[in-house]
């Protein structure tokens, strides 16, 4: 009955419109407005979205317990200065205007690059006092160079007493003084502890 079109004018002609029970039945069988159905659906969807937003907002308002921030310790390079007043006799600064020899230490690694001028013949330790913080874990050979052209076989090492310089005449045990009026540059890297050197050597060898 709900799918049949009913002409109310026709019912009136045949005299059926006088029966209220029939009119009530016809109105009950009429389909409900689609517009109302869509409106109801929209209301339900809007209410669902509002509830969802409120639920998410409640979750965001629950703040987590703050965790303490542990600062990361960054190792700083330490700079050590040895004044030229602690140079041995006959040893001067490469540049007379300089006041200090500089050593740069990061953890157990020490780097240096300094220049010397030997005003007279010299063999021995460059400094009269060498800082304990700069002592190498073992005797370490120096990287040397001179700019005078004396053709000297200058050798040297660094130990707990500091830099040692001399002139090799073909044998490690046969060392003589370096001729005066010689400029020497000394530079290098060494370790004050065995473990960092061991790790660096292993990295190079791929062990």
TrEMBL record:
Q: Which domain of life is it from?
A: Eukaryota
- The name of this protein is Uncharacterized protein
Which organism is this protein's natural source? Streblomastix strix
């Amino acid at each position: 009955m709900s799918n049949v079109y009913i002409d109310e004018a026709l019912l009136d002609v045949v005299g059926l419109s006088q029966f209220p029970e029939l009119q009530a039945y016809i109105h009950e069988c009429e389909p409900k407005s689609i517009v109302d159905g869509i409106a109801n659906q929209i209301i339900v969807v809007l209410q669902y979205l509002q509830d969802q937003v409120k639920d998410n907002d409640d979750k965001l308002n629950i703040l987590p317990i703050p965790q303490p921030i542990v600062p990361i310790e960054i190792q700083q390079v330490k700079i050590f200065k040895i004044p030229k007043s602690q140079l041995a006799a006959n040893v001067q600064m490469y540049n007379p205007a300089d006041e200090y020899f500089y050593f740069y230490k990061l953890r157990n690694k020490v780097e240096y690059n300094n220049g010397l001028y030997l005003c007279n013949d010299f063999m021995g330790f460059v400094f009269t006092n060498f800082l304990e913080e700069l002592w190498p874990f073992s005797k370490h050979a120096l990287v040397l160079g001179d700019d005078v052209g004396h053709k000297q076989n200058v050798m040297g090492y660094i130990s707990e007493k500091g830099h040692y310089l001399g002139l090799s005449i073909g044998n490690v045990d046969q060392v003589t003084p370096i001729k005066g009026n010689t400029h020497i540059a000394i530079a290098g890297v060494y370790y004050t502890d065995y473990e960092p050197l061991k790790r660096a050597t292993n990295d190079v060898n791929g062990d």
